[in-house]
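Good morning N.,

You mentioned wanting to compare the apo and holo forms, so I went ahead and generated the holo version with magnesium ion. This is what I fed in:
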Amino acid sequence: MESNAYPTTLPRMAKSLFVCQSCGAEHRKWMGQCTDCGEWNAVTEQVIEAAAVRSLGKAKALRASPITDISQSGNPRRSTHIEELDRVLGGGLVAGSAVLIGGDPGIGKSTLLLQAAAKLAADKKHGPVLYITGEESIQQVHLRGSRIDALHDDLLLISACELESMLATISEIKPSTVIIDSIQTTVSSKLSSAPGTVSQVRDCSAALIQHAKTHGHVVVLVGHVTKQGALAGPRVLEHMVDAVIYFEGDRGHAHRILRAVKNRFGPAGEIGVFEMSDRGLIGIRDASRLFLAERAKDTPGSVVLACMEGTRPLLVEVQALIAPTVYATPKRSAVGVDSGRVAMLTAVLERRIGLPLAQHDVYINIAGGARIAEPAADLAILLAMVSAYQEKAVPEDIAVFGEVGLTGEVRPVGQPESRAKEAANLGFSSILLPSENHERVQKANIIANMRRETAMPLKLLQARHLSEAAQQILK
Ligand code: TYD
Ligand code: MG
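and this is what came out, ligand included:
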């Protein structure tokens, strides 16, 4: 009777699971800090109901189709008629897709989506838009809508939190787009856990996304990001949706940046720039002008960088401040760029140019609250530091781009023509660029001051090494 030594049913033991509310990791026992994401006080107990045993049966083979035989029916994209939002989405919302919009509370997610919903509803090609609010009453949404001019007969509102009634409403109305504001307030009555917990957020999203895929409407989910982990961050959702968009910006500035971090139907890394006004969010096409608006001219420590955000060139001002230190270890501080990168570049300056920075604090700031992640910013950061140290201003009509390696060599970067073109468009007459990018930019024949009588080819200054770059613009 060997085979009867094991019980045929599992002992009724493991009935709880400890789930991190921040990252969704599952643990066997409770712990103060999640070992996966390092968040404190985020692990909570969840009771799991006995899973139904699925009968495997005999699975039927599926038919595979050649990729060339798959037909596309028309253009599945729906423009939101908000240019900056369309750009981030890669041209518009794709039918049957799910988009997640994350961001801090109060950043403007509801405002932007209400504006987009009204525009989509006004586009008669598609059908009604359903805006489901779980945080505000429909009167509040109406009030906001009338203030920002986002009212339309085909924009339908419901105030609901329960997933099952949402799905029933969606099936009845058959909207072209559904907006769920927010996923953290959505609860399924089939689950016992509280709203906003990982299991609620995951299961409700899965049901809404599945519904969208089968019925062909777009679903937009709003997700809050909190540091405490009291609400499930949208991190667990990122795998489930087709596009993830983050809304960034700080309260000190009126502008907001919308950034695609994942997009199955378009380029990731694309940004849209908005300004929060008393009539809602206004798209800003000419973002470079915004970031250069308060630029200090003829001041040491300021350099204009021509960087790329996705496919879009953007000019920003890099500022450096170098001051004798009062600390035992000098400070290296950066806002808007990675501070590790700044520490590395400081070391390059010390060793390759011989600037004695060991007794100096170094502060780097990207003016206007922009955030730059690309290495093409290296040269501008370094030149700003040299300019600040030597107290010599960089001529105001020069823009700069280029990556710098540890030996001080200036390396080529991608899309040099777009960067140079943006600089020329904004009235810069010269650009300092890596030697290896020179040929490509020269071929593009970029004209500076096109609209004025003094129109002439954009002057290209090239550099192979950091010292060569500094010599050319800091005389
Ligand atoms: P909201 O869209 O409610 O943010 P979220 O949904 O991301 O939490 O935005 C709220 C903020 O925006 C609030 O601080 C007020 C401001 N705001 C304006 O400045 N102008 C406007 O026209 C609107 C509607 C909001
Ligand atoms: Mg909101």
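The first helix runs from residue 83 to 89.

Happy to go through it together on a call whenever suits you.

Best,
F.
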